[in-house]
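User: Please fill in residues for this 218-position structure.
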C-alpha cells in the first residue's frame, strides 16, 4: 500500500494499492485488480449535523466523474445511481462505502489501463478510449477533487445533488433496480429525492423511492 502525498486540498488519509489480491465490490463480489488500474481508499468522519453518511456515495461519484473528465476530454461519461461511472454505456469504475461508528471508508476502483471481459454487463477502461493516466497522478487529482466536494457536502447536500443530477443519465431513462430481497423494479428515472435516494416512476403512474439496490440501464 502507498500513502498519497498530502496537500492542503486533500483531507485525511488516502491509501493506494498497486494491485490487489482480494479486491471486492458490493455484496462481496470479486473485483479484478490488475496493476495499472486504480485502487484507492480514504476515510471520512461524519460530524453531528452533517448530511446522512449514505450521501457520501454522491460525493464520491461527482468527485470521480470530475477527475475522469480531467483526463478524458471527449465526454461520454455519466453517473449511474448511486455512484457507478459509465463510459459510452460500459462500466468504468466502482465505489464501495463501509461504515463503522462515525467513520466511513470509501474505496474507489477505476479501470484505467485494463477492464474485465467476463462480467454480466459491458465494462471498459480509460485506455480503451485513448487516455491512460498514471494511477498515482490520477489518485492525487481524485483526492483534491474529493476534498472540494466533501467541503461543500459538509454545508449541505444540495450542491452535490445538483452536480450529480447534471452528470447522470437523463430524466426518463429506463432503469431496473434489483433489490436485496431478490425482487426487481422497472421504471423511468425520476431524479433523486432530497436525501439522494433514487426515484423511479412506475408504469402505473406511481413512484417508488429506492434506498438500496443494484441499478441497471434498460
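Assistant: Residues filled in for all 218 positions:
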Amino acid at each position: 500500500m502507498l500513502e498519497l502525498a498530502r496537500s492542503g486540498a486533500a483531507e485525511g488519509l488516502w491509501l493506494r494499492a498497486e494491485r490487489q489480491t482480494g479486491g471486492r465490490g458490493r455484496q462481496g463480489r470479486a473485483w479484478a485488480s490488475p496493476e495499472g488500474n486504480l485502487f484507492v481508499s480514504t476515510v471520512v468522519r461524519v460530524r453531528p449535523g452533517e448530511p446522512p453518511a449514505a450521501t457520501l456515495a454522491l460525493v464520491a461519484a461527482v468527485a470521480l466523474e470530475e477527475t475522469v473528465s480531467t483526463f478524458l476530454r471527449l465526454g461520454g461519461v455519466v453517473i449511474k445511481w448511486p455512484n457507478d461511472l459509465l463510459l459510452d454505456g460500459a462500466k468504468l469504475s466502482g465505489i464501495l462505502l463501509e461504515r463503522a461508528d462515525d467513520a466511513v471508508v470509501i474505496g474507489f476502483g477505476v479501470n484505467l489501463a485494463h477492464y474485465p471481459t467476463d462480467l454480466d454487463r459491458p465494462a471498459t477502461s480509460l485506455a480503451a478510449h485513448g487516455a491512460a493516466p498514471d494511477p498515482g497522478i490520477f489518485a492525487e487529482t481524485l483526492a483534491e477533487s474529493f476534498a472540494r466536494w466533501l467541503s461543500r457536502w459538509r454545508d449541505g447536500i444540495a450542491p452535490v445533488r445538483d452536480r450529480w443530477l447534471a452528470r447522470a443519465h437523463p430524466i426518463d431513462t429506463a432503469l431496473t433496480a434489483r433489490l436485496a430481497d431478490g425482487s426487481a423494479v422497472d421504471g423511468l428515472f425520476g431524479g433523486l429525492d432530497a436525501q439522494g435516494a433514487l426515484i423511479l416512476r412506475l408504469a402505473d403512474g406511481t413512484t417508488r423511492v429506492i434506498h438500496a439496490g443494484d441499478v441497471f440501464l434498460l
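For context: The chain has two domains: 1-166, 173-217.
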